[in-house]
Amino acid sequence: MNVYIKAQESVCLVHPEIKIKDIMSLYCTDKDLEQKIKNQSVYHFIGNHDQRKCFSVLMLVEVIKQVDKTLDVINLGAEDFIVYYKRKQEESKIFHYGKIVFVILVAFFGASFSIMTYNTDVGIEELFYNVYEMIMGQAPDGPNILHISYPTNFLIILLHLVRQLLKNLQILFFCPFLNFTSIRYMLKKL
């Protein structure tokens, strides 16, 4: 009897117990056997911290063959894949609504800033002086807080983007037996 499997290249789970049904699609003409295979345990993450593990489809074929040695397993998906375990994090409602208010304020002031720079013909220096004078009631004498915060925010955003890029590229070094299809898939996610 044939069993068709198709593993996803990357799976994120919030429970430490990995079963075949969590990481791949599976088809078999015998539905009882299919359910039995899908409920087979593959791995259990130990500890209460975020983890990841690389798997090969060959290991899953071994697990499937433990159910019935006469099965012919046909792989239609990735040969190697990564499973991420991330703890379920409960966030408070205050923090959740705080993030919503923050995004609303950033959108409001970002739009205001864009409109003001457009009206001043993208004269950001002049805009900083006008905003400072409007808020403080007097003309600035030299660079002010706006001159410092503007490039600082760009630096913070740039460092965050670089950190995310390096975090995503770390996956490539973590699992050396990934094939080129998996690497292309991960680079597309960047």
Could you characterize what this model shows?
The structure is a single chain. By secondary structure, the chain is an alpha/beta fold. The chain is 54% helix and 20% strand. The chain contains seven helices and eight strands. The protein has helices at 20-23, 31-38, 57-67, 93-119, 124-136, 145-174, 180-189, and strands spanning 2-7, 10-13, 17-19, 24-28, 41-44, 51-56, 72-75, 80-85. The strands form three sheets. Strands 4-1-7 form a three-stranded mixed β-sheet. A three-stranded mixed β-sheet has the order 2-8-6. The radius of gyration is 26 Å and the shape is elongated.
Strand content: 15-25%
In helices, the fraction of residues equals 40-55%
Number of strands: 8
Q: How does the overall form come out from the CA principal axes?
A: elongated
Low-confidence stretches: none
Task: Report the major sheet.
Answer: 3 strands, mixed
Radius of gyration using CA atoms only? 26 Å
Strand order of the largest sheet: 4-1-7
H/E topology pattern: EEEHEHEEHEEHHHH
Oligomer: single chain
Task: Report how far the terminal alpha carbons are from each other.
Answer: 40 Å
Q: Compute the average pLDDT.
A: 80
SS-based class: alpha/beta
Number of helices: 7
Keywords:
54% helix; alpha/beta; 8 strands; elongated; three-stranded mixed sheet; single chain; 190 residues
Produce a short descriptive summary.
The chain has 190 residues and is α/β, with parallel strands linked by helices.
Task: Map the helices and strands.
Elements: E1 2-7, E2 10-13, E3 17-19, H1 20-23, E4 24-28, H2 31-38, E5 41-44, E6 51-56, H3 57-67, E7 72-75, E8 80-85, H4 93-119, H5 124-136, H6 145-174, H7 180-189
